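Task: sequence design from structure.
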């Protein structure tokens, strides 16, 4: 694994071949990338300015997406120069399956990933239906092969789906889980994962797959449906306008992942913590349904705004940083050539 070039704890590198996005659900409200894109489009470097031009605007003092999305060729080809293997988060500043991108542009990103099998790529989207439809389209491998030929005439598409590409969907509450997880589980992919960050409400994985099973949540049938989910990331929100995360939401996800044998990664508590009894300022109460109320309100849990660094990344004094096995390591483990626990 390479040295880290990002503050995101579950990856080594961020790669942004695409710039721009638009809001689609409550988890987008305080997206850090909007402010970053605004700053980038005012950068003195003309290349940076050109990449992010018109992707963000200011509305009532707040930076928001314009909906303008573009593929940037200079950034697209960066991984071809990375010889040292690394974990790469694809598009921290965009959504690869935004409807502003054409199918061939998505294929061009996939082509670069196919040409660099030494890296593991993590593709995360809120537009799960389009990702499912694109990955499962019989035309997709041909589109990717056509783009490979343009980038490297000697290049090949070794497999479909690509062994080195993990695909995931962002969920922030049960509504989004119910909508997106079943679609994710239908994606042709080596590894499927969810990022429950910012976690804005309780999420029950078994409930999200009820439409795929005939039994009740928590039954063996639900476990079978969730067998195609290989990783869960969870965390609270950070930033000046962050919303607090009730610890029971994270605990429930942790416990459910343990029940179904799904590797669990807890990224951060977020801006607000429940574990600062001596902190006097910026206190609110949070109800189990996510509503914030005055501190001390009946049924509420006190939350303290201390900043994400002070809040830390422990859940009940435990650090959870389990990764899914790579496809190659999983196959080796199954064959008996490699002993490995659930995560590595």
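Answer:
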């Amino acid at each position: 694994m390479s040295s880290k070039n990002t503050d995101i704890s579950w990856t080594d590198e961020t790669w942004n071949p695409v710039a721009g996005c638009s809001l689609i659900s409550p988890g987008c409200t305080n997206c850090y990338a909007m402010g970053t894109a605004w700053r980038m489009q005012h950068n003195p470097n003309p290349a940076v300015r050109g990449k992010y031009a018109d992707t963000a605007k200011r509305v009532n003092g707040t930076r928001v997406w314009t909906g303008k999305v573009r593929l940037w060729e200079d950034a697209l080809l960066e991984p071809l120069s990375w010889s040292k293997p690394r974990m790469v988060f694809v598009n921290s500043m965009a959504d690869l399956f935004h409807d502003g991108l054409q199918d061939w542009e998505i294929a061009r990103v996939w082509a670069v990933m196919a040409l660099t099998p030494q890296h593991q790529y993590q593709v995360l989207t809120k537009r799960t239906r389009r990702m499912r439809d694109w990955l499962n389209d019989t035309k997709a491998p041909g589109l990717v092969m056509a783009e490979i030929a343009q980038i490297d005439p000697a290049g090949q598409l070794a497999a479909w789906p690509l062994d080195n590409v993990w695909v995931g969907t962002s969920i922030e509450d049960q509504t989004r889980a119910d909508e997106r997880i079943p679609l994710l589980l239908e994606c042709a992919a080596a590894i499927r994962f969810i990022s429950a960050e910012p976690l804005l409400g309780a999420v029950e994985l078994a409930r999200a797959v009820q439409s795929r099973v005939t039994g009740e949540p928590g039954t063996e049938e639900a476990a079978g449906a969730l067998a195609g989910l290989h990783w869960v990331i969870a965390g609270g929100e950070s930033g000046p306008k962050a919303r607090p995360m009730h610890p029971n939401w994270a605990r429930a996800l942790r416990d459910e992942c343990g029940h179904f044998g799904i590797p669990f990664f807890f990224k951060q508590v977020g801006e607000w913590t429940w574990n600062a009894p001596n902190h006097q300022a910026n206190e609110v109460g949070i109800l189990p349904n996510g509503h914030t109320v005055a501190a001390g309100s009946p049924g509420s849990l006190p939350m303290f705004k201390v900043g994400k660094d002070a809040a830390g990344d422990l859940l009940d004094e435990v650090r959870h940083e389990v990764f899914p096995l790579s496809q190659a390591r999983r196959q080796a483990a199954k064959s008996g050539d490699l002993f490995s626990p659930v995560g590595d």
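The longest strand covers residues 120-125.
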